[in-house]
Amino acid sequence: MKMKWALLTILFTIATVLTGCDNPLMVLDPKGPVAATQANVIMISIWTMAFVVLVVVVLYVLMILKYRASKQSDDYEPPHIEGSKVLEIIWVAIPILIVAFLSVVTVKTTNEVEATPKGYEKQEPLVIYASSSNWKWHFSYPEEDIETVNYLFLPTDRPIEFKLYSFGPIASFWIPQLGGQKYAMSDMVTTLHLAADVPGEYMGRNSNFSGSGFAQQTFNVNVLPTKEYDKWVDEIKATAKPITEDKFNELLEPGHVGQSTFTGTHLKFSPAPEGENSGHHHGTSDTEKTDSEESSKDSHEGHSEHSNH
């Protein structure tokens, strides 16, 4: 009787929670090919785990019902059993097969989402530099020569290549309905490939704790058909003020700001940490590196000559 009421309580709780969900989870409501691939992986994992849990629960109920002590006589003694090689092989092999299956699915889809989305390989991607600071997002469009703060406009049916980095602590760039998160770091640039199939307004955010204001480090994503996107770019170029180094440094100060738009990008006076500006080269140009190497070489040769004497 207790087991029956426990099962009924669980079922009632699940039904209550599910009926309270008016909107689907954003990660399971994809609006682009990358997000669709990741949503499929999530559902495969959920159904696989649900099957395992269901089998375990059913076997558990069967065992406690069939072999409960109340069914046996007082003088009952269970037979001595040495074990079963067949059963042992089965319950070792099944977890191995499940893990192998999920591993293959994960590796395959990870490689898939790290590349240009399927169907967009022949198109030139729209490159957007997305940089974070405490606690805001700066989006630079080199192709259009414009910059936005805390909001994005994207065209449909074109691959998007985000170049991510940070002016502060590590942040995590995430638009749940377009794809998974990726880290933005201060000493390097990471690349995130996305695409949007459906026009609409979506939510983006920093999903990595980066200080007291990270919960409000969100941004709006507006996906438009190509013609409307081009119209938006023209309007920005005609109405927005140019970004200056002083204004950009002001925006980098910790705090929350609203949405703003500029012509030009901060990449001209504060380039992203890639190429000669990457953390590995510490901003040293090729000429400076060559001079430094020659100087080091001359110094080493002079030291060797002195040692020989």
What proportion of the residues is helical, as a percent range? Answer: 40-55%
- Count, helices: 6
Strand content: 15-25%
Q: Quote the distance from N terminus to C terminus.
A: 98 Å
Q: Could you say what the CATH architecture of the largest domain is?
A: Sandwich
- The count of domains is 2
CATH H-level superfamily title of the largest domain = Cupredoxins -  blue copper proteins
The tally of beta strands, per DSSP, is 12
| CATH topology value of the largest domain | Immunoglobulin-like
* Largest beta-sheet characterization: 7 strands, mixed
Poorly predicted segments: 18-22, 281-309
Query: Strand order across the biggest sheet?
Result: 8-5-1-2-3-12-11
Q: What is the typical, i.e. mean, pLDDT?
A: 85
Which structural class do you get from the secondary structure elements?
A: alpha+beta
Write down the CATH class of the largest domain.
Mainly Beta
The coarse silhouette is elongated
N to C succession of SSEs: HHHEEEEEEEEEEHEHEH
Supply Rg.
29 Å
